[in-house]
Amino acid sequence: MTTTSSLFGLVRPELEEVDAQLALTAQAEHPLLGPMLSMVLPGGGKRLRPALALLACKLGQADPGAAIHMAVGVELLHTASLVHDDVVDNSELRRGDATLSIKIGNALAVLVGDYLFAQSATRCVATQNLSVISLFAQTLASMCQGQIEEGSRGNNPHLKLTRDDYYQTIWGKTASLFVLACEGGALLAGLAGREVEAVRAFGKQLGLAFQLVDDILDFTGDERELGKPVGSDLRQGTITLPIVYLREELADGRFARLFDEAGPDEIVAEVLASDALERCRAEASSLVAQAQEALRALPHSEANQALTTLASFVVERNR
């Protein structure tokens, strides 16, 4: 089975430095902050976003120090967003462990997230690239907007959410950070014009596909692999594209009755029995193909090939 570890060979030394820098960030001198940061840093994530940034940096000639700052900044921003998301969603588990908000309370968790946002901004500023700094600010705004859109849908979002609504939300929540990693790396690499636009398009399509696969796995994944219960989003009231497609299949009021009368397990079973997930998988594959096509505008290189191969992993993964 393909793993991220096997795909990251071209940037393995840099990723090890990213891990070391994340560990240093957790060693804050403040007697209370340091232990709290150690609960989420360096973390056990896939390091997909910093790997994308580092690979994009290798599409040209990026300063090695700036590339590390970019990769660390992206991962810190991702971690901060997870800490805040867990507070907003009242999540109890993250990667099979209690969330930071469960361990230390919502108020302190929000402040730790704020500190991580500040540290990520510091890293982006350290690249000394004004375009990257501007992109960071745009990304943070997009992420906040995506979270606000998802959290302000009111009553019965399962009856109201459209496909376009869904994609607008996941652009902000997920894909915008992929764009920061990819476009930011391309800018540091010295790319310009159509080449930067191509890398940006790659990041956007890949980020959308990644979130769509995440939402599929919420229904099909193994609880031990996911680190959270199957149907976790549904149980928290988060409506995703599989539910939109299930609604299109269940006519004559069956869909509304299902949500009125059945529990999450029954709804998950209906999704699994429908064509909703196959439609979502087809869309994810199409998005990945579009991402890979965008890279054809760039010269062939090891980094280009690594990004192309990494995109295929997005639809093959099981967690």
Written description of the protein model:
- The protein is built from 18 helices and two strands.
- It is an all-alpha fold and about 325 residues long.
- The protein has one domain: Farnesyl Diphosphate Synthase.
- Helix 2 (about 10-25) packs across helix 5, helix 5 (about 65-90) packs parallel to helix 8 (about 130-150) and helix 10 crosses helix 11 (about 195-220).
- The longest helix has 27 residues, at about 195-220.
- The protein is globular.
Descriptive terms for the model:
globular, Farnesyl Diphosphate Synthase, 319 residues, 18 helices, mainly alpha
Please give the CATH architecture: Orthogonal Bundle
Compressed to H and E, one letter per element, the order equals HHHHHEEHHHHHHHHHHHHH
- Termini distance? 13 Å
Strand content of the residues, in percent?
under 5%
Let me know the number of strands.
Answer: 2
What is the name of the CATH superfamily? Answer: Farnesyl Diphosphate Synthase
Task: List the topology elements.
Layout: H1 4-7, H2 12-26, H3 33-38, H4 48-57, H5 64-88, E1 93-94, E2 97-98, H6 100-104, H7 106-126, H8 130-151, H9 157-160, H10 163-188, H11 194-220, H12 223-226, H13 232-235, H14 241-249, H15 254-261, H16 264-273, H17 276-294, H18 302-316
Antiparallel strand pairs: 1-2
Helix pairs in contact: 2-5, 4-5, 4-10, 5-7, 5-8, 5-10, 8-10, 10-11, 11-17, 14-17, 17-18
